Amino acid sequence: MDSTPVNWESLDALIIDFVSSENLIEDSVTNSSPSPSSSPSSSSPPSISSSSYHARLIIRRIRNSIESGDIETAIDILRSHAPFVLDDHRILFRLQKQKFIELLRKGTHEDRVAAIGCLRTSVAPCALDAYPEAYEEFKHVLLALIYDENDQSSPVANEWAEKRRYEMAGLMSSVLRASLQAYDPVFSMTLRYLISIHKGFCFHQGISSTVSDLTHRLLLEERDAPATPPESMYEAPPFDEVDIQALAHAVELTRQGAVDSMKFAKGDLFQAFQNELCRMQLDVSVLDELVKEYCIYRGIMDSEMQMVTGPAKRSQAEVGHSLSRDCSSEIDLNISQHSDVENYSNNSMLDGAIINDTEMSSKQGGDIGSEPTSGCEDCSTSWSNQCENTRALHRIRSHMNCESNKRKRWRGRADEIECLSDLSFPKSNSSINPVKDKYEIAIALKELVSRGMAAEAAYEISTMDPNFFTQNPSLLFHLKQVEFLKLVSAGDHNGALKVACSHLGPLAANDQSLLKTLKETLLVLLQPDGHTPGKDLPLNYLANTLQVSVGNKLDIKEPQLMKIIKATLHTHTEWFKLQMCKDRFNNLLKIDSLKEVNTDLISAIKSRSNKDSNTNLSSQVTTTSSSTMTSEDGGSSSLMMMTQTSPREALWEESAILKVMEFLALPRSDAIQLLSQYNGNAETVIQQLFG
Fold this sequence. Notes:
Domain CTLH: 55-111, 438-495
Strand content: under 5%
Pfam family, one: CTLH
Shape: elongated
Protein name: CTLH domain-containing protein
Structural class: mainly alpha
Number of strands: 2
Strand order of the largest sheet: 1-2
Distance between the termini: 43 Å
Number of helices: 34
Region (Disordered): 27-50, 609-639
C-alpha cells in the first residue's frame, strides 16, 4: 500500500480547493504579486464548492442550534435563509415537536407554560396535515407533560433522549444540503468514499489496515438521516437498475434505500451519490489538522501556529458532535512539531500553476516509482549544520533567481467555533529556526527539480550530505537522466555523453534494473533535431520522490494524509478488480487524476514525439509502457494482456448480473461467481438458492 504511486499535484489541487472553499485560509496576502510561472487557471473564478460556502455555513449553524436544543434559533435561521423548508409540514411538525420537548427540558414554570403554548399554536395544527401518523405522534408526545426526563422506563423515554436532536439535525442537514446544492468540497467527498471502500475491502479480505486508527477517527460510524422524498415522487417511474445497484454498493445502502435516494434526487444518479456521501460524518477537527500538516509539508501554505498536539481520548459518539459541544479538546495526531514555518518557493501554489501528470505507466525496475529509503540511517552531520543549511537555501534561491514569497496563512474555522480563538499558539521569535529551514530545504529542492534544474539540485544535496546519493543511487540516476535529456534537447550531445559516461553508466553498472532505462535514454540521441523535448518533462513524480527522501534524512515525518491516500487508493484499485467492473464515480471524485502518475520520462518523450511527428522510431525500440510491451518472440503482448485482464462479466448478460444482485442482495463479484457456476442463467441461480 505504501508504494502506491500517487499524483500529488492532483491532490494538491483538491486540497487547495478544499481550504479555499472552507475558508480555512486568509483571503489574500498583502502586497503579493502573482508568480511569473503561474498558470492562467490561477485567475479563474472560484469553484462551485467555493461559492456554496455561505450556504454550508448556514447549514452548520442550523445544525449546531438543533444539536444544542435551541430549536427556535434554528427555525428563525430557516425563515431567513430557507423558508421553503418550513413549507414542508412533515419537517415543520418534527421541529415544533422537538421545540416542545426542549422547552420542557429547561424545567422552569415559565418554560412549561411556553411548552403548552407551543402545543396549542404550533404542534397541534401541524399534526393535522403533516403525515398520516403525525396526529398519533402528537398525542403520544403529550405524555412528556407527566413523565420525567430521567425516567428511562417511561413510554416517552425516546422523546426525551438527546439523540433525537442529532437525528433531527442530520435530517435538516440532508434536506438543506440537497436543496441549496451546498455540497462539501470534492476532496471531502473523495476522502469519505475512499475510506469507506478501504474499510469494506479490509473487512471483506480479512486484512488489517496500516491506517485503521486514523480512518476510524476520521470517518465516523454515524450517518445523517436520509432526506424524505417529496410526496409527488412516491409514484415515480422505475429507475435504471444499473443506477440503483451502482448507488447501493457505492455507499452501502439497501436497494430500497438506493431507490428512495434516487427519488429524492429526481432520478439524478450523481446527485443522489453526493447526497449519500455527504451523509457520512467526518470529524472536521481531525480532518483540518491532517490537511494543515499536509499543506505545510507540501509548501502550500505558511504557518504562524504550532500544531495542536496532545492526547484526546473521546468516544466516536462524542467526537461526532465535537463541532458544537467540545471546542477545547486537543487532537492527538502524533504530528511532527512545527514552528513558524515560512515555506520557500517562487510561485505561491494557492495562486500558481498546478501541473498534473497525464499518463499512467507501469512500474518498471528502472522507474522512479521505487520508494525512497527510510531515514533510519544516521543523518550526516551536514544536514544538521544550521549555517550550511542557510547557505544552501540562499544558493537554491539564486539558482531560481527569485525572492521568497509569503504564502497564505491558516485561518481555521473561526466563524464556526469561536472558542478556538481563545487558544494560544506560540510564535517563533528567533530569526534562525532549524525546523523552518529543514522544511524550506526539502520544499525548495522539490521545486528545483520540478523546474528541470536537476543538476543544481544534485549539487546542493551533495554539498549538504556527500553520502546521500550513496544511499539513494536510483535518485541520482534519474536526476542525471534529466540533465542528459536537457543537454540533448539543447543540442549539446557531447555534454550529454559526458553525463552518461560519468554518472549514468557507472550507476547502471551497479544496478542492473537501471540498465534498460539507460539504453532507452541513449536512444533519445537518435531523435531528429528539435524533436527531443527538454522542457515540460513530467518531473513532478521525481521531484516529489526527492522531497520525501530528503525529508527522511532531515527527520521530517511524512504527512499522515499522504499515508491515508496511498492506502485507500490501493484498496480502491483492488476492490474494483474484485468487483470486475469500473467505478462509475471515478471521474466525479477526481480519483482517476490521483492515479495518473507518469514515472517514465522516456515513454513520455516518445508519446509526445509520436504526436508531433510521423517518425517510426517508437516502433523500432522497446518501450516501457505497459500497453506496448514487446514479448521475447518479437510479437506485441498488448493483446495477450487485454485477454488476461478482460473482466469475466463480459461472458454474461448485464441483465442476468443485475437480476442476481437484486434478488439475492449480493455484490457484483459474488453475482458473477454464481452465474459462472450455472452457465450464466440467472433464473437457475435463484431457483437453486431458494429451492
